[in-house]
Amino acid sequence: MTNENAITVKNLTKTFGDFTAVDAISFEVGKGEVFGFLGANGAGKTTAMKMLIGISKPTKGEANVAGFDVRTQAEDIKKSIGYMSQRFSLYNDLTIKENIVFFGGIYGLKKSVIKAKSKNLIDELGLHDEADKLVGSLPLGWKQKVSFSVALLHDPKIIFLDEPTGGVDPITRRQFWEMIYREANNGKTIFVTTHYMDEAEYCDRVSIMVAGKIEALDTPKNLKEKYKVDSMNKVFLKLARNIE
Predict the structure, then answer these.
(1) Does the pLDDT of residue 81 top 50, yes or no?
(2) Where does the record place the ABC transporter domain (predicted)?
(3) 244 pLDDT more than 50
(4) Is residue 196 left, alpha or beta, with left meaning phi > 0 and alpha meaning psi from -120 to 50?
(5) Which of 101, 124, 150 is the last residue of a domain?
(6) Which CATH number characterizes residue 38's domain?
(7) Euclidean distance between CA atoms 141 and 49, whole angstroms
(8) What pLDDT does residue 88 have?
(9) Is pLDDT of 3 > 70?
(10) How many Å apart are CA 62 and CA 38, to the nearest integer?
């Protein structure tokens, strides 16, 4: 990994029997970049992310995340990243405070650090009245915000977000992206998968996957100019038609 890159990927491939879910993809993500990993459902985004976060071994190719090799240093990667899964990843039968304490312990934080971070998190989200309520009772948008904040407890260098705004309303989606920008401004690298093409406009650069391959990778502005359209959704539609 160079000093400029948080993630480096070369010909990364994942097959399941005769099916190729991720087909020799290559790209780099700079430190502090908000990198959008776009594509329709089933395009291979989540499979690729699982290899990058160290929970699925590549069939072929190589990748380096936060200075560690995905094949041989998966445990080091897990300690260096934050991860928010596509499905809500906190415990519904614990309160917000209890979830913070639990995951703080998983990350190996001291009790004094967990206490301070709990207060900061609750203050920042304005959840003083809800802090002792079961997470399962919160609206989905708030669950996602808490989940994102908990993924930051151990101050990771890179944050992986898998479909973080799926199912939430437009206002909450915008608020969630404000949280993402805040962390990027603090120097963290954000790797986000989404099938909402309009969210590509919020990213520094985007890659677009179609059937397991990266068919386009550039800034949203450059991609729209290249394909002579006024939205990222239209870029994706043009790409899809070309592949067909």
Answers:
(1) yes
(2) 7-236
(3) no
(4) beta
(5) 150
(6) 3.40.50.300
(7) 23
(8) 63
(9) no
(10) 21
What is residue 1's predicted lDDT score, i.e. its pLDDT? 40
If DSSP codes are grouped into helix, strand and coil, which group holds residue 7? Answer: strand
Nearest alpha-carbon partner for 81 in 56, 62, 107, 100: 107
Q: What letter represents residue 121's amino acid?
A: L
Phi-psi region of 20 (alpha: psi -120 to 50; beta: other; left: phi over 0): beta
pLDDT of residue 91 exceeding 60 = yes
| Average pLDDT score over residue span 176-195 | 90
Average pLDDT of the chain to the nearest whole number: 89
Q: Nearest to residue 75, comparing CAs of 57, 90, 58, 55?
A: 55
Max CA distance (Å), the chain: 57
Which residue bears the tokens 């998190």? 121
Q: Phi first, then psi: what are they for 11, rounded to 5°?
A: 55, 40
Indicate the residue among 150, 165, 187 that finishes a domain.
150
